[in-house]
């Protein structure tokens, strides 16, 4: 017994100690499992969302900018002049321009007249000019976009999210807007990074001008500018002045800026996952330490017998540290499975590509063993310091 212990003997003996109490082992490993699962699930959700954004960015293109009303020096809003789309379109490097106008106040969209007026399902109303579709490189998945005829009629085109919320999956249906029925002539594919358009119901600009504006000039909500390839940086620098030469306070946002802003949210989600996982691992480590202390107290007779047969204190300590690390490793393995399942479920619900945090998954077993070994250190030292006669007597 006093000879050198082989690794196989240490692991085998530790496994016998872990397997002898399956219920306690499962409870002790649960904290570590939850910690690892939280890390993998939340960092995986962030990675999946980032992959989704990159795919949208590639589909949308790196040459889109959005010009919107800005704020003047007095912090008051400065609207875009009605000539902004034309002056922007004449600038060198601009390929296409699309315009969204602000809808008249008080318009809400309902599937039927039976829907309560307060339940708008988060669907907004916007007024589109026919050039918007080409500027966005958007795709109509059902029906068609506005033309010279339909833009003057009570017709609507639904964004992808708006169609889903309204329960409409094909053109030819109708919706109730401002107390009037509008025929749905088209449904758009998801608009990518410009996701505010997905939840919108678009109406024709001429119909709104002739029937709902009462002679008022349209208010431009945004001008979508598609630059020529490789020219977005140059074009973005002059858009504010081009939109309103007299008061160049327009807000100019590039698609890359939108991507970066949403990536910050993903980084925050990943950081939250690491923080929650760290807290859960700490709780799990305390649970394992408590379990090992109880195990030492219950197995004093075994410890005393082994010490009497010649086992050294270091060998006793090694066994208990190994048991603790093995407990934590089992929890880590379960946590990896739970975390991957959670990340996959999140990606499936959000309809995003699954992107697993490989680095976190590979580090999980190492972190688990380190937590377990550290948690079992004090109980192992306590077991090693038990005197053989006192341990046998107390048992």
TrEMBL record:
Residue ranges occupied by any ABC3 transporter permease C-terminal domain in the UniProt entry: 276-387
Keywords of the record: Cell membrane, Membrane, Transmembrane, Transmembrane helix
Residue span, MacB-like periplasmic core domain: 25-232
Membrane topology: Multi-pass membrane protein
Statement: the UniProt record of this protein carries the keyword Iron-sulfur: no
Domain of life: Bacteria
Gene Ontology, cellular component aspect: plasma membrane
Molecular function terms from GO: transmembrane transporter activity
Predominant place of localization: membrane
Entry annotated with the keyword ATP-binding: no
Subcellular localization, as worded in the UniProt entry: Cell membrane
InterPro entries, per the entry: ABC3_permease_C, MacB_PCD, Macrolide_Exporter_MacB
Transmembrane segments: 27-47, 272-297, 329-350, 356-377
Similarity section: Belongs to the ABC-4 integral membrane protein family.
Protein name: ABC transporter permease
């Amino acid at each position: 017994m006093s000879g050198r212990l082989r690794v196989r003997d240490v692991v085998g003996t530790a496994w016998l100690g872990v397997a002898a109490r399956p219920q306690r082992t499962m409870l002790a490993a649960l904290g570590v499992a939850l910690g690892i699962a939280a890390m993998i699930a939340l960092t995986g959700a962030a990675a999946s969302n980032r992959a989704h954004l990159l795919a949208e960015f590639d589909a949308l293109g790196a040459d889109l900018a959005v010009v919107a009303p800005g704020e003047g020096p007095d912090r008051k809003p400065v609207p875009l002049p009605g000539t902004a789309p034309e002056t922007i379109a004449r600038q060198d490097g601009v390929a296409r321009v699309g315009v969204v106008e602000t809808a008249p106040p008080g318009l809400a969209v309902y599937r039927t007249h039976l829907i309560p007026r307060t339940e708008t399902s988060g669907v907004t109303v916007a007024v589109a000019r026919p050039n918007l579709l080409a500027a966005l490189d958007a795709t109509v998945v059902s029906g068609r976009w506005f033309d010279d005829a339909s833009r003057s009629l009570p017709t609507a085109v639904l964004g992808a999210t708006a169609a889903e919320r309204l329960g409409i999956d094909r053109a030819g249906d109708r919706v109730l807007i401002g107390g009037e029925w509008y025929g749905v002539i088209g449904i758009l594919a998801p608009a990518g990074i410009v996701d505010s358009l997905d939840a919108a119901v678009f109406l024709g600009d001429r119909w709104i001008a002739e029937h709902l504006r009462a002679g008022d000039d349209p208010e431009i909500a945004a001008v979508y500018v598609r630059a020529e390839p490789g020219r977005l940086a140059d074009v973005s620098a002059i858009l504010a002045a081009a939109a309103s030469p007299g008061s160049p306070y327009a807000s100019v946002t590039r698609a890359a800026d939108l991507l970066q802003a949403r990536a910050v949210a993903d980084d925050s989600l990943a950081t939250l996952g690491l923080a929650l996982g760290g807290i859960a691992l700490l709780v799990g480590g305390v649970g394992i330490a408590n379990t090992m202390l109880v195990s030492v107290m219950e197995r004093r007779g075994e410890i005393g017998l082994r010490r009497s047969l010649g086992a050294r204190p270091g060998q006793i300590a090694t066994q208990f540290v190994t048991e603790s690390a093995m407990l934590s490793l089992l929890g880590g393995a379960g946590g990896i499975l739970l975390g991957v399942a959670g990340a996959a479920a999140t990606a499936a619900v959000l309809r995003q590509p699954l992107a697993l945090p490989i680095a976190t998954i590979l580090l999980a077993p190492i972190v688990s063993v380190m937590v377990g070994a550290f948690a079992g250190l004090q109980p192992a030292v306590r077991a090693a310091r038990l005197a053989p006669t006192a341990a046998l007597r107390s048992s």
